Amino acid sequence: MNRKTTGFGVGTASIINIFLILCLTTFSLLSYCSSRQNLRYARKAVSYAQSYTEAEYKANQILAQIDKKIAFADPQTYAEEIYSLENSDNIHVEYTDNGYIASFTAQSDNNCSFNVAIRIPLSPSEERYTIIKWQTNNTGNDDNSNGGQNIWDGQTF
Amino acid sequence: MLKLQSKKSARHISSFFIEIILVLLFFSIACAILVQVFAKAYNQNREADRLNRAVMSATAFCELYSDTADIDNASEKVFNASPDGNGNITIPCNNKNNGKNPDRVMITEHTDDSETGTLSTATIKLFYKDKTLCEMHSSCYIKKEVRHE
What we know:
The structure holds 2 protein chains of 2 kinds. Helices cover 42% and strands 20% of the residues of chain A. Chain A is an alpha+beta fold. Chain B has a 4-stranded antiparallel sheet with strand order 1-2-3-4, with helices on one face. In chain B, α1 packs antiparallel against α2. Chains A and B meet through α1 of A and α1, β3 and β4 of B.
């Protein structure tokens, strides 16, 4: 009646096999998901950097146009010519005691825009303008805007 | 009695071997599929790494160029090399970085010169094995002194 057991009976190999395959599947899926996310974020970074430089290029173009108008403005009709900047490229001109403030937004195709403001002297001078604001504004859609987690906004209950 | 026992043990051994064969077959099929998933994940990670490095180099170049509009200075600082006549920079690959860095950079410059200032634009393209990784435009406006008569 004494049965000899080998310790590695029928079924043990199947159980070990199932365990190994489950482990491998889990690790492979985790690494695949992680790498896919990495690639997605890398592509987003490229897209954001491209739109940033594109917006900067547009801002420089508008600045060059404004500079051309200021440089060749007739001293007799200087103020009118400064205000005539408002006719193009969504430029907004405002009068202050320190000079005219011309502000505009250079928008790239998707993600990024530049808010620029320059101070133009009240009368024609050698220094035609001074940049007072050259600010990036991220207008891209955040992935967490829909269905993201609610984060405490710092206000007490 | 002995015969019956030996028959039982032979059947036990044969069923064990059949199981082992089936297990190995199943395991090899599963491994073939899972290795492909691992390989895909590895390649995606390398591509992400390459894109990150490309965008960092391109951004550094654009920042330097937008300050000075000096294409040679910017490329010397970022890529340790100046572009040739066609605007190309070939980055030597060493074994350590092989496959992780872009292998070729193309820089072109366009200058719009007017009486009031110069609007310079540089376009930088980074390649890996003739595939474009990223393309960026950097610009710089430098105003000039205008003398009214």
